Amino acid sequence: MDNIAPFSDIITAHVEDNKPMLGICLGLQLLFESSEETNNINGLGLMNGTVKRFNLDNGYKIPHMGWNQIKINDTDSNNVSILEGTDNEYMYFVHSYYINPSVEEYVTAYTDYGMNVPVAIGKDNLFALQFHPEKSGKAGLKILNNFVNLID
User: Fold this and answer.
1) Of 16, 36, 105, 134, which one is the catalytic site residue?
2) Catalytic residue among 14, 16, 25, 95, which?
3) Is-catalytic flag, 14?
4) Whole-prediction pTM value?
5) How far apart are CA 55 and CA 72, in angstroms?
6) 140 with 91: CB under 8 angstroms?
7) Is 132 a catalytic residue?
8) Domain 5-151 belongs to what architecture?
9) pLDDT of 75-95, one tens digit each?
10) Please, are residues 86 and 106 in contact by the beta-carbon 8 Å criterion?
11) For residues 145 and 152, what is the distance between their CA atoms, to the nearest angstrom?
């Protein structure tokens, strides 16, 4: 946040101008109000909620590294357009923290990692992914292509 803070007004204005924005991994987590990773440092606050550290004691390793299947959560209030064609696909993850949104309706995908983990959001023109589409093969490239097509 120290490095991105000087640009927070520009980022917020970009989103408020209804321009598409995509956050990946830490880029998802920075959108929220705060994180357990660093106390007393606020996130961008573009999404309500916090980022929490995994606290799994059932044999799941932290950080969560590797391939997991995503399940799309299509509701009337979220925007799943960039995930089109990727339901039940495997994506590549590397993270120790997960989002805990105040408004769950904007969660567009989940994965199972010892709990039902929210891994993607879509709200109007704002999209973000916990996993790495650039490392997720054809399914990840499909997501990136879907996002680029939104810009055209």
Assistant:
1) 134
2) 25
3) no
4) 0.94
5) 24
6) yes
7) yes
8) 3-Layer(aba) Sandwich (3.40)
9) 888 899 999 999 999 999 999
10) no
11) 11
